[in-house]
From TrEMBL:
Superkingdom of the organism of origin: Bacteria
Source organism of this protein record: Amycolatopsis mediterranei (strain S699)
InterPro entries: Cellulose_deg_GH3 (IPR050288), Fn3-like (IPR026891), GH (IPR017853), Glyco_hydro_3_C (IPR002772), Glyco_hydro_3_C_sf (IPR036881), Glyco_hydro_3_N (IPR001764), Glyco_hydro_3_N_sf (IPR036962), Ig-like_fold (IPR013783)
Keywords from the named record: Hydrolase
Protein name: Beta-glucosidase
Keyword flag Transmembrane helix: no
GO biological process: glucan catabolic process
Region Disordered: start-end pairs: 1-24
The family this protein is said to belong to: Belongs to the glycosyl hydrolase 3 family.
Domain Fibronectin type III-like: 590-659
Molecular functions per Gene Ontology: beta-glucosidase activity
Pfam families on file: Fn3-like, Glyco_hydro_3, Glyco_hydro_3_C
Biased composition regions of type Basic and acidic residues, renumbered to the chain: 13-24
Length: 671
């Protein structure tokens, strides 16, 4: 039986906050018994908490609570479940191309996670959208590692500003839900390092994420949670990660293998890191020293984030302030896909609106699964429109009968049709097509009323066979709890849309890189990444295939022009300087994008995003923009050297408003 030690800095030196987090963690682990160490290696759900590691009172170790993410503080399987602000889906955040806004988004999540007395927010989710039908596409940040890496780093810094630990996930290449617990992804070394790892590196090296979640799949035959090449060689040795690695729920598959690879915390009730760990220690398969080493990163992180000295304590949420932020985030993330004849913004003097569709009846607060947030409140679409145009008659129809909806549309000045999907963790979509009668509904309403606006609430791309029949399409993603207010604000021009697509919208299901059974969902438990570097817009460019809407696309209620591109080598990198001018009649923001074309011998896709900047301009205003490219931007992964190597030769720098709208080009030779 252990006797309780006095809680003094002399008897328990790890309580001395003047010491470094590393030293405090080492002192604490040295004072623990084997059973105490093992108790801290896995979750131990109780009557109130599922994602929970209990405290050790005698040592002053606080309880450790993990919350779901990444679009708000999820319920964490707590009982009773706690409401929080349901933010727009992370895909909407990616559409902003705005690191400053991403940091504010993260700060709100971190603040609410701490206010609801949790230590960790499981997010952001930054897996690449290799398969647009992936059921968790809505949780991610699109198909480009440069975009995802920049926004993830900012989001993480925001989450962690007040001492909440961010947990970037799912490391690595967790790109489908079908067979997710055992799928073996065969990915060549170059593709893995150029497409599926750089954004995780940025999350660690620039975002300084305190935690990384290892994922379900195998990569080249090895489960990620017991993969030393990923957890030790890449994450810790190459990237200098100092935090802890936690498994996805049930993603651990071994005791010895996971311990040796460096998985620090098992997110389930001790299947591998409980009694089996103790038996492994007693049998000499895992040393007690190794058990202590597994604890050090989490304790060090908790000390560094102040969670020992100032554990999170429940406090009220500033709901009004966070509602306003959620509305702004949703508005800024919406993408205006089409706007023929200036259909939008709508005239605030409109007298009658037909509000139609299955996604018009209630707020779309998010997708399904562990990321779902119980909202503190909601603004439904009808309420949002009525609040914005109180003088108009807004009539709601759920769209279940297209003929009835068309009849209503004929009586209104404007028809707003809201369609979408319901993505969820645990399953992939059978098709990118809208389910049920939604396509027929849009067609019928558009034929009945030429002033029809379609608002799409989806987690990723959807097919639009009716695209040429409607004058305006607004991609709203999953807008979160302020759905109705945010959509109304954009439709009526209170907000000038500035979002850009972080993922390509294909014209057909077959128009995606992973379009064979061997690629997705896999054959015999193996998914072969034979498309290599050609993911998303890279594939469309390489194949000469026209997308429905390209990566980076997004319209505005004003117009922009680009001019004056000057490109120069600068040290190990280069600079691209150009002018963006607002050529329209109202203030707006443009996301200027810089793409790089490599020498043919490098074997890269035709163009790759390397930098971007959001530029806000008054009517007629112009701004000179400089985007810097570093040595890594001009490098490729060398499989012989197992390292990045600079490419040499003639590059092409392209600048514009999307991957398919690049009016400025200039050569650049790298020797």
């Amino acid at each position: 039986m252990s006797l309780a030690a006095p809680a003094t800095a002399e008897a328990q030196p790890w309580r001395d906050a003047r010491q470094s987090p590393d030293r405090r963690a080492a002192e604490l682990v040295a004072a623990m018994t084997l059973d105490e160490k093992i108790s801290q290696l896995h979750l131990q759900p109780d009557a109130e908490h599922q994602r929970f590691v209990p405290p050790i009172p005698r040592l002053g170790v606080p309880g450790f609570r993990i919350a779901n993410g990444p679009a708000g503080m999820g319920p964490a399987d707590d009982k009773p479940q706690k409401p929080a602000t349901a933010l727009p889906a992370t895909m909407a955040l990616a559409s902003t191309f705005d690191t400053g806004l991403a940091r504010r988004y993260g700060r709100l999540i971190g603040d609410e996670t701490r206010a609801l007395a949790h230590n960790v927010s499981e997010g952001p989710d930054i897996n690449m959208a290799r398969v647009p039908r992936n059921g968790r596409t809505f949780e991610g940040m699109g198909e480009d590692p440069v975009l995802a890496g920049a926004l993830a780093a900012a989001d993480i810094r925001g989450i962690q500003e007040n001492g909440t630990i961010a947990e970037v996930k799912h490391y690595a290449a967790n790109n489908q839900e079908t067979d997710r617990h055992g799928i073996d992804e065969h990915i060549d070394e170059r593709t893995l390092n150029e497409i599926y790892l750089p954004h995780f590196e940025q999350a660690v090296t620039e975002g300084h994420a305190g935690s990384v979640m290892c994922a379900y799949p195998k990569i080249n035959g090895v489960f990620t949670c017991e993969n030393p090449a990923l957890l030790q060689d890449k994450l810790r040795d190459d990237w200098g990660f100092k935090g802890f690695v936690q498994s996805d729920w049930g993603a651990a598959h071994s005791t010895v293998g996971s311990a040796n690879a460096g998985m620090n915390l098992e997110m389930i009730d001790g299947t591998w890191y409980g009694e089996k760990m103790k038996q492994a220690v007693l049998a000499g398969q895992v040393s007690e020293q190794r058990v202590g080493e597994l604890l050090l990163p989490r304790f060090r992180t908790m000390f560094a984030f102040g969670q020992f000295d100032h554990p999170p304590v429940a406090s009220p949420l500033p709901t009004a302030q966070h509602d306003a932020a959620a509305k702004e985030f949703a508005e800024r993330g919406m993408v205006l896909l089409r706007n023929e004849h200036a259909q939008l913004p709508l005239d605030p003097g409109v007298k009658s609106i037909a509000l139609i569709g299955p996604f018009a009846t209630r707020a779309k607060t998010g997708g399904g699964g562990s990321s779902a947030v119980i909202p503190t409140s909601t603004v439904d679409p009808l309420a949002g429109l009525q609040q914005r145009v109180p003088g108009a008659v807004v009539t709601l129809d759920d769209g279940s009968d297209p003929a009835r909806a068309a009849a209503l549309a004929r009586t209104a000045e404007v028809s707003v049709v809201m369609v979408g999907d319901n993505e969820a963790e645990g399953k992939d979509r059978p098709s990118l097509a809208l389910d049920g009668n939604q396509d027929a509904l849009v067609t019928a309403v558009a034929e009945a009323n030429p002033h029809t606006v379609v608002v799409v609430k989806s987690g990723g791309p959807v097919l639009m066979p009716w695209v040429s029949r409607v004058p305006a399409i607004l991609q709203a993603w999953y807008p979160g709890q302020q759905d109705g207010a945010a959509v109304a604000g954009v439709l009526f021009g209170d907000v000038n849309p500035s979002g850009k697509l972080p993922i390509t919208f294909p014209a057909a299901d077959a128009d995606t890189p992973a379009n064979t059974p061997a690629q997705f969902p896999g054959v015999g438990g193996v998914a072969t990444y034979s498309e290599g570097l050609q993911i998303g817009y890279r594939w469309f460019d390489a194949q000469g295939r026209a997308p429905l809407f390209p990566f980076g696309h997004g319209l505005s209620y004003t117009t922009f022009a680009y001019s004056g591109l000057a490109v120069h080598n600068s040290g190990d990198g280069a600079t691209a300087t150009f002018t963006v001018r607002n050529t329209g009649s109202r203030a707006g923001a443009e996301v200027a994008q810089v793409y790089l074309g490599f020498p043919v011998a490098a074997g890269e896709p035709p163009r790759q995003l390397k930098g971007f900047e959001r530029v806000s301009l008054a009517p007629g205003q112009a701004r000179r923009v400089t985007i810097r490219l570093d040595k890594r931007d001009f490098s490729v992964w060398d499989t012989a050297a197992h390292a990045w190597q600079p490419a040499r030769g003639a590059f092409t720098v392209s600048v514009g408003g999307s991957s398919r709208s690049l009016p400025l080009q200039a050569p650049l030779v790298r020797r």
